[in-house]
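Subject: Sanity check before I submit

Could someone independently write out the structure tokens for this chain? I want to compare against mine line by line before I put it in a report. The sequence has 401 residues.
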Amino acid sequence: MESAQISFGHHEFLKDVLTLLLLLAVIGYCMNRFAVMQGGIDFPEFYSAARLLAQGHGHEIYNVAAQNNSQVTYTGRIGTYFNHPSFELLIYLPFCFLPVKDAYLLWSLLSVALLGVTAKLLQRELWPSQSWRILLLGSLIFVPILLTLIQGQDSILLLFLITKSFVSLKHEKEFRAGGWLALGLFKFQIVLPIIFLAGIMRRRAVLGFSVVLAFLALTFIAISGWHAPIEYARFLMHTSTLPLAGIHPQAMANLRGLSTQFLSLPRLSLAITIVASLLVVGLALRDAIRSGNTGTGDVDLTFAEAIVAATLVSYHISPHDLSILLLPITWTLLHASRTWKTSWFLHVISLTTCIVLLLPPLHLWLLDRHQYVYMVVPLVTLFAVMRTGFSWRFARPTQVA
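---
Independent answer below. Compare away.
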């Protein structure tokens, strides 16, 4: 018996080693190409902005000239601009005292570690019958995750925070759930719709979110001054006029990107985006309220649908931001496996949509043609699948696990 346990433990250790080696290979690839990629990746914008903060120039973070000078001085290039709330730079502050290549390596290691923790959380809460390694390795073929690692972006960090919020909500730790989600406000255009939809029936979650929001707002002002909110708003309003703003509607897999793709009149495109966004939010809000009023407490579906809805209605989103879809894709795959006997059609549509979203071909094809906006089609399909899932659960609560 003891020898069998030792053998099993050795087997698990071997799996851990192989998984670690694969992750290190991914990081090694990024590092090996760093010199080639440095001019086109995003990490230097965070690094150089953190340098401004470290030198006591937090009040200049939203000054274009100051960002340009910092990028040239410390990274040898001028690229896209740091356009997040300045409190996020506290995360990058420890990295900015290293040479940029070493900082990029450490940030990549941190991102991979957070991805591993996220995979374990999702496996434990959504798919306990499977190994967390399967989810982790599966996430590495998800193009938005790979883009996040290559670009040195913060989307895996956001995925981790959203997942922690989801887990806390499942365990009825609502205040903590709101706090975890608020920590992701460096991408407020995504996080605000999620708390609105997922926390609408949970007052303590909203309270936790509000407390952390207040702390972050004070931190923002402490870093950049009392005038910072106005300067930040002006900076965002004029970002699209900057030559290296990194704002490309044809790369946005959301409703704004889709309307811009087909309509050349900016005002008409904006109007349609607003109407379509209100429709999506209204449908998701209706589902969240129904779930709360019927006492189903369907946290999984409510939260997953809120993430997809937030992605669709987000005014600005980049391909790497779709990393947060790992949670709803995992839930949908599990749900499809449980409902195929109830509805084979829903099963086929769910499975097909997740395969299209998870596997690389469509992502790479659209990226190569600079038409990533069309990823919104499987996203809308996923949203429709989740709404159908709500209908099935309310109509046949005894048939779905």
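---
OP: Matches mine. For the report I'm noting this point. Residues 394-401 have pLDDT under 50 and may be disordered.
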